[in-house]
Structure formats: structure tokens, C-alpha cells
Amino acid sequence: MKHLISAILVFITFSAYSNPASVKFADAGFSIDILDAKPNNFNSQPLSMTLPPVKGFSANVIVQIQPFTGTVEEYLELSEKQFQSMGLKVISNKTNGNEVLLEYKGNLLKRDLHFYAKAVKKDKIFYLITATDLESEWEKTSVKLKSVVDSFVTE
Questions:
Q1: Which helix H or strand E contains 116, and what residues bound it?
Q2: Are 148 and 116 in contact (CB under 8 A)?
Q3: Which residue, among 129, 120, 127, has the nearest Cα to 95 in the 3D structure?
Q4: CA atoms of 79 and 81, how far apart (whole Å)
């Protein structure tokens, strides 16, 4: 019995190291282990995904982790002030419990861009998931990009 328990513990330990979490990109034809770390007191961007470039720009979805101790309403207010200072126009905003949904557009880096974002408060951080594409391409890519953003959930 002692050997059986030891064998099971070795198997569990080996399995944990031999099968790390990974993500599969079926359309692109690959999978890759994830690079994971706990949030700390600094902004970080643990994930960035892009589509092939069109007109010199790759539509993308990024996940950022932002320390912020304020409320969802304070986060929304701060975000809208930042958009205004950058000359971006808010198309829509909505709060729902611990989440904020935003859609906005404007010219950045000499490109007319369209954004869709979801911010989720958990403890003393916000997870900000943002989809971005050229305004001229938004109608073609928005369903896919929004779906990816909307799929985000915290553990």
C-alpha cells in the first residue's frame, strides 16, 4: 500500500509538470503553453492576440491587469476622462455589477481606430480586455473581436 501511494504521488507530480496549461489556436495550426504569473502592484499585459494585418494594421485583443482600488463607477469615470484627453469619442458605456463595457473610437497614431473593451474588477485590480481595429475594418471584424472580449471571465 505504501508503494502504491508513493507511485500515485509521483504520477500526480509528474503530470503537473508534464502537462502545463496550454492554449490551442486551431485555425493558426498550433498550441503553446501559457506564461502565467500572479498580478502584482504594477500594470501588466499577460496576453496579446492579433489577426493578420489589413491595410498595415493588425486587429487585436489584449488583456491588461491594472491595480485600481476604486469602484467600477470611478474606473469608468477615469477611463472616459482619459479617452477625452486623447480625443477619443465614447460610443457607449455600461456598468453591470463588477464589469464595465465600453465602445469608443478616434484617431490615434494617425489611424482611425475603433475599440471595444470590457473591464472586470476583482479585489484591488481591474482586468481590461480591449479589442482594436481600423474603423474602416470594424464592420468586418467586430463580431469576432467582441466575442473574444466578451468571453473573458475571472477565476
A1: strand 111-122
A2: no
A3: 120
A4: 5
**Residue 22 contacts by C-beta under 8 Å, 6 or more apart in sequence?**
31, 32, 33, 34
What is the C-alpha separation between 74 and 142, in angstroms, rounded?
Answer: 27
Residues 15-71: pLDDT tens digits? 444 456 999 999 999 999 999 998 888 999 999 999 999 999 999 999 999 999 999
Q: Structural domains in the chain?
A: 37-150 (3.40.1000.10)
Strands 22-25 and 111-122: unpaired
Q: How far apart are CA 59 and CA 155, in angstroms?
A: 26
Lookup: cell for 65: 491587469
Residue 8: is its pLDDT beyond 50? Answer: no
Cα–Cα distance for residue pair 16/26, rounded to 1 Å: 24
Cβ atoms 79, 88 nearer than 8 A: no
Q: Please tell me whether residue 84 adopts helix, strand or coil conformation.
A: helix
Whether the per-residue pLDDT at 2 is higher than 50: the answer is no
Give tens-digit pLDDT for 78-100: 999 999 999 999 999 999 999 99
Q: What is the pLDDT of residue 19?
A: 53
